[in-house]
Structure formats: structure tokens, C-alpha cells
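Reopening closed ticket. The problem is back. First fold of the pair:
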Amino acid sequence: MAQALAQHPDFRVLRRLVPHSDYGPLTAQATQRVIVLDTETTGLDSKNEKIIELAMLSVLVDNATGLPVGPVTIYESFEDPGKPIPAQITEITGIDDSMVQGQRIDDAAVIALVEQADLIVAHNAGFDRPFVESRFPVFAGKAWACSFMGIDWKKEGSGSAKLEFLASERGWFYDAHRAQVDCHALLQVLALPLADGQTGLSRLLAGVGQTRYKLRATGAPFEAKDKLKARGYRWDGEGRVWWCSLPSDEGLDAECAWLRAEVYGQRSARVQLEAMNSRVQFSSRSGQLSERTL
């Protein structure tokens, strides 16, 4: 019945995602080890909230094909946060106090996996990285990539960058908001080709050497706020400045030209830049600060 529906133009068939524990035999090609990571936590603030579940998939990626190869090393554990899990977190994740009571993530096992990795990937690295770095300093010395921000999913033809949506577009459904299955879903999404033929894993690995910039439009006139917001800038209430994130030097140059023309009215202005390489970006640590004259 599913096969018949799948062949009919009026229907799409979703199949339950089947986790892969092995991606087939290794080849003679060079590889890099990637960890796909996800956390569940007691809340959003990494300074005050705690990890309650950590999952990691460690796998080799063939440099030539961008495909995962060989066995997948899986680590997953609950951790007792030392305080009650909020009801809304239990509602989202299904994790309650009884499941984490007395549990602790194995520090040695995590460190051993992370030390072998060339790249850590999370679908919202800006959320996960501060949490795991606070708990395990070993993560701070590794290159990170964000599959949510590091791939322009809209340009790739996707209607949303949310992981559940990306998986659904590719014909899979799964029980989301549990760390390990989210990791499996992300790994399988990233193992598929993008519009240019390279896999998502290849795209993220290629970006490891790139610098990402946080551009703050200091002194932007109040009347430009609608333009900035429409452009994708975010408001930093504490710093009282509009800012955006840019993935490359080329993007930075283009954005500075747009700011000068559309926001500052061709007047000379100085904006603040924060340069972040893959060992700093998405963490709570600051990158290299500088100013640029437009």
C-alpha cells in the first residue's frame, strides 16, 4: 500500500526514520571524524540551566564523497540536574525527574570521544555549545559547525530549517526532542546531497577554515530599524545595537556596502566587527573585536 501511494502524484509517504549503526565498509580515501551532538536541558540559559540528556554520534566521513563510512559510535546518557525538571520541559522532551534521578554523564567517555573528533556538528550550535562547554571544557578546543546556520536551507529549496521539517521533506518522521534520535535524523539529512551535489557534511567540513563575523551596526539611525529588521538583523537590548551574523569575508564586504547605502545614507560610519573562527563561533566566548569604517 505504501509503495502504491508513493507512486501516486497526489500522495507523499512518510516512513519512520531507521537509525544506522554502520554506514558500510571503509575505503582507502582520507576521512575526518565528525561528532553529531544534541542536548536536552532544563531551560534555555546555559549559565543557569543544566543538561539532562546528552547524545553523540561519532562517525568517519569520506573526504572525497562527503558520506559517512564505517560504524557509528553512540553515546547517550541522562544527567540529574540537581533540581526539578520544569513541567514544560517534560512536556516537550518526555524526560521527567524519575528518569534522571541519580544519573550522571560519564566524563571519561565523553572526553575520549571528543578528543578524536575533527568537527562537532549541532543543529543549533549556538544553544548546545555553551551548555556542553560549561560541563566539559574539552569541547572548547574543537572546531564546531552549525547545520542550522551553516547551510542556507531556503536556498536549497526547503520551506524551513527545522530538523523535523528537513527530515519530513526527505520522507522520514521520528519522535523528535529526544537527543539520540535527533542526532540520527540530522546525520541522515546531512548525508544526502545538496543542490550542488555535495553532501551537507561536505559543506560543513569545507567551512571549518572560514571566519564568521558578527557585525554590529553601531550608531544606526532609529528610522532605519525597519530596514534592518527586514534584512534579518537582531536587536541587542543590552548593547542597544542591531547586529547580524555573516559567514564569510565576501558576505561581510557586501553587507558593509549595503549598510553604507541603505542605513547610513552614504555617510561615513564606523561599525563593530567580531571575528569568530570555528573554535570560537557559537560559544559564549568572544571573538576578535575590531572596527571598520564604511
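Second fold of the pair, where the issue appears:
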Amino acid sequence: MTGITKTTEKNLMVFTGRANPELAEEVASMLGTGLVPTSAYDFANGEIYVRYEESVRGSDAFVIQSHTTPINEAIMEQLIMIDALKRASAKRITVVLPFYGYARQDKKHRGREPISARLMADLFKTAGANRLMAVDLHTAQIQGFFDGPVDHLMALPILADHVAEKYGHEKLAVVSPDAGRIKVAEQWSQRLGGAPLAFIHKTRDINRPNETVANRVVGEVKGRVCVLVDDMIDTGGTITKAADALMADGAAGVVIAATHAILSGPAIDRLKNCSASEVIVTNTLPIDEAHEFDKLTVLSIAPLISRAIQEVFEDGSVTSLFDGHA
């Protein structure tokens, strides 16, 4: 008796929740496909319901969801989407996180605190995720919180190419807003032809989140256009104080470049009124019209995510997208 052999073609399917559908549509169209039609609605008490309108059996599924405000709803919706895929027999589920919620809670500063970034990874695993793909995690060690492959994408090439094109003729300096992000600043420096590095020495009161106390510039910034680089802008306090400190130290100008534009509360006013001439961000999080202002430049992260999805789907190399640095 002979067995039945069947080789099925790999089937790439892209899914999105309701947090940032525009980005997901852009990614899907770059991959030459469409988003899988999905019903999603909330019950009267806030519970979320999700159902896919076509078969996902045997698919290589990529679930894109930005953890935007209200963040816990975005996360819960994505977990429910993953569970639905697992129960509908998707072959492999890759969770695509343009912005990974709770990434700042990646260690304990004091006793009796959670490590919520690790909890997030456990939730994705339990829901049925086989793989994570994230853009500019707050710290690289979060990759180790998920028991499975993690693709850590960097927005640096997209942001740095824009800066090089616009300010490449100036004398530049790359500035990290704190000592912890010097490694990222070094990669920026390489990308910008070896521009000198500086960082802002700041003190923080651990009892008061989103607030920094004092700034002191360490490094030579006088007469240079300073590229102030960070992973996210939340309330904008840290980055705008850093920009003002650089100008006070004799910088010729300041350009802010950050991947994730959370832009909570007073962020817009602070950025509008600070001494930076341009604020460059990506669309990992949706930016509504009310949050747009003259200085703000939004670059699309979709080309990076679509290329990474293509490499994963074709069993290629994601590292090759970053000259071997990822």
C-alpha cells in the first residue's frame, strides 16, 4: 500500500487588528497581497470578538498590531487574533509588533515591581505565537523574554538616510539623550560618516515616571548640528530638555530622530516650543491629524516590515537587511 504524499505551497497571509490598519495595508500591498477580511467588534461590556472571513488553515500568518492608545485593548485584541489563528490551524503564527507595549518595564528598579515586558512575551507564547517581530525594542534583552525566534528590526537606516540626505553637508554630532543608548548612537555615527558622539547625563527620580531632573552635556557639540536619537517620544520631557541643553551648550542646531511617536499629553506643545528644528519619527504608531505640526516629519516603516516578512516567509535572512548588524 502506498502512502499519500502532498506538497502544499506555502501560503502567506497578513492580518491586522484595529489599532493601525493603514500601516498594515501598506505592508500588505508591498508584499503583493491584501489583508485577510476580519470581523472585529466590541461587546457592550468592552469584550472583544474577532473572526476571520476566510480559511487560514496551513497558512504562514503574520499578525500586525501596533500597541497604541488605548494600549491594553490593542494588546488584548492581538492576543485574541492569535488564539483564533491557532484554533483555525494556521501553520506558523508570527506576531508583528511595530511598537511592543510595556517594553519599558523590562527590569525591576525596586522590590515588588513586575517585569511586564516579560509577561507580554509569555502572553504571546500562550496565545499561540511561534515567532515575534518587533521594531526598535526599548532594550535588546527583551528578545530573550520570548521562547522562540525574535526578529529585532531597526528603524535606524530609514531615519539616518533621511538625516544624511537633508543634513549631510553640515558638521554633525550624534547625541544620545542618556548614557544607556550610546550603542545605538554609535551605529548612527557609523551611518553618518563617523560623526562625533555626545550624550546627556541626566538624573531621574525613580518615584516619578516620565520626569527627568537635571541635564549636562558630555561631549563636544559646539558649532555642530546635533542629531538627538531615541527609541520613543512619550511626553517629550526628556528629549526637549536635552535639545535645550544642547543649544545652551553652543550647538548650531538640533534635529530629533525617534522611532516611536507615542506623543502623550503635553508632548506636542513641548516639541513645538523646543529648540529642535525638525522632529523625525516613523509611523510604527498611528499619528492622527491633531498630533501633526510643522516640525514633524513622519517616515513610513512599512518598507522595512514588508522586507522582513518576505525574508521570514522565504526562509531568508533578516540580518542581511541591516548589513549584518541585527
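Update: turned out to be a display glitch only; the data is intact. The chain has a mean pLDDT of 94. The chain has eight helices and 14 strands. Please close again.
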